[in-house]
Design brief:
The structure holds two protein chains of two kinds. By secondary structure, chain A is mainly α. Chain A is about 50% helix and about 10% strand. Chain A contains three helices and three strands; from the N terminus they run βββααα. The chains are: A mainly alpha, B alpha+beta. At the A-B interface, loops of A face β10 of B.
Chain lengths: ~80, ~350
């Protein structure tokens, strides 16, 4: 997933996501949008964890599990491969 | 440059919950800055809403139903042509295409142009022969035409249930068992005749593409969408343009292999299991959502008019991704005199009300 080109995804500031390949739309909360933006910017898993725990009040262990689940969701939706 | 005084006739003015493409084709043509002329609507029913809508048709004529044959159609067009000179006709309904193709030579001699699929093209995309597209290297589901009930109970030799059961012209159902298939076979054959077509059920995401082929293998334009709202009959009530390079290649390949001439709507499924694109159906005319092509930057109905006039048309730039359409349902109020006139005279000449 890391390094994948996701620049085609249209993610707006308010968390509205349009995948122009599939035509699907999603709404992300502010944390989800923050993470996806980092993925689009080609951050690695560890870099995203570091960025999130710096920005939000969450432990590394808990957030790492949440991030794995989020990756799984994105993969299920074919937003990332 | 504007086309001065062009006279275009367009059929398919029904605009109910399963609308014909006539009104959106007309709206698209009127949106072209190159168009300057009049549009004549060809309607089957005095209650087709396109007859009454403001800013759609300058003139309207009632037409014979396709079951009355090509000769009757030609006779009626000659009658109309004697009253209103016609330069181009765009038929928009599947059921009338065969007759228009038959009389296209005669229309050409009258100076009336069209840009239609060839008779061979129309035949090769029919559901009965659809599986043969595999021989041309086009990915389509396995299929079989059946003419008797006994064949249904032999389907499991070739297919895994569920399967699609389709009428040769309209209607399709998912059958989860041979009993289901038998039920739908009876229902469809009673309405649309034989054969009934059984098709492999491909699980995946459905997409629709409106395309215009130049008849020599070239693609003038294509607008792919994901339907985002459906009616109970499964018709698009809302959609959004997408950009999938694999599907775009697939569409270009289909148009090239078929040397498709004119407009079409390609129904595709992206298989959930393999990610391959399957061509499910080709409808040989513009879809009812073709006005979206104007919003997405590819006015395909106007391009079809230019092709009919034998003008060179280059491939259009890619359509704009993320352009949406949503239909709505709204009541309009009309005087009964318009209804009386179209009912009694079968024509309305020069009666368009301005928008």
């Amino acid at each position: 997933m890391a390094g994948q080109n996701l620049s085609h995804l249209a993610l707006s500031d308010d968390g509205f996501l349009f995948d122009p390949t599939s035509g699907h739309t999603y709404t992300l909360n502010s944390v989800g949008a923050f993470i996806l933006r980092k993925i689009i910017e080609k951050y690695s898993f560890d870099q995203i964890v570091a960025a999130v725990i710096e920005e939000y009040d969450v432990s590394e262990d808990i957030f790492s599990r949440d991030l794995e689940q989020f990756y799984h969701f994105l993969s299920e939706q074919e937003i990332v491969s | 440059m504007k086309k001065k005084g062009l006279s275009i006739a367009v059929s398919g003015l029904n605009a109910n919950d399963n609308p014909g493409p006539g009104v959106p084709v007309i709206r698209s043509i009127r949106k072209s800055p190159e168009f300057d002329g009049i549009i004549t609507g060809l309607a089957f029913d005095p209650l087709d809403p396109g007859i009454y809508m403001q800013g759609v048709c300058e003139n309207v004529f009632l037409m014979p139903y396709p079951t009355q044959g090509a000769d009757r159609l030609l006779e009626r067009i000659k009658e109309i042509h004697s009253k209103i000179r016609l330069d181009v006709i765009i038929p928009t309904l599947d059921s009338e295409l065969d007759a228009y193709i038959r009389i296209s030579g005669e229309l050409e001699r009258l100076g009336i142009r069209s840009f239609l699929p060839s008779a061979q093209g129309l035949n090769v995309r029919s559901k009965v022969y659809f599986e043969r597209l595999k021989e041309m290297g086009i990915t389509v589901p396995d299929g079989q035409s059946i003419t008797s009930m006994t064949s249904i109970y032999e389907l499991d030799r070739k297919f895994k249930f569920p399967v699609m059961v389709k009428g040769q012209f309209y209607e399709a159902y998912i059958a989860y068992s041979p009993m289901d298939a038998e039920y739908y076979f009876r229902k469809i054959s009673a309405k649309w005749g034989l054969p009934v077509v059984v098709q492999e059920y491909v699980v995946g995401q459905e997409y629709d593409v409106m395309a215009l082929g130049d008849g020599r293998g070239g693609l003038i334009g294509a607008v792919p969408i994901k339907k985002i709202q459906l009616t109970e009959k499964g018709k698009a009530w809302g959609g959004i343009t997408i950009d999938d390079s694999a599907m775009n290649r697939c569409v270009r390949d289909i148009i090239a292999k078929l040397k498709w001439r004119g407009p079409c709507e390609l129904e595709m499924i992206k298989s959930r299991d393999t990610g391959d694109y399957y061509l499910i159906e080709i409808n040989p005319r513009f879809p009812a959502w073709c006005y979206l092509s104007v919003g997405a930057g590819q006015n395909l109905p106007w391009a079809a008019v230019k092709l009919a006039l034998n003008e060179p048309v280059k491939e259009l730039p890619p359509c704009q991704t993320g352009t949406m359409f949503l239909r709505n349902s709204i009541d309009h109020v009309y005087p009964i005199s318009t209804y009386r006139e179209i009912m009694m005279a079968g024509e309305l000449i020069g009666k368009m009300t301005k928008e």
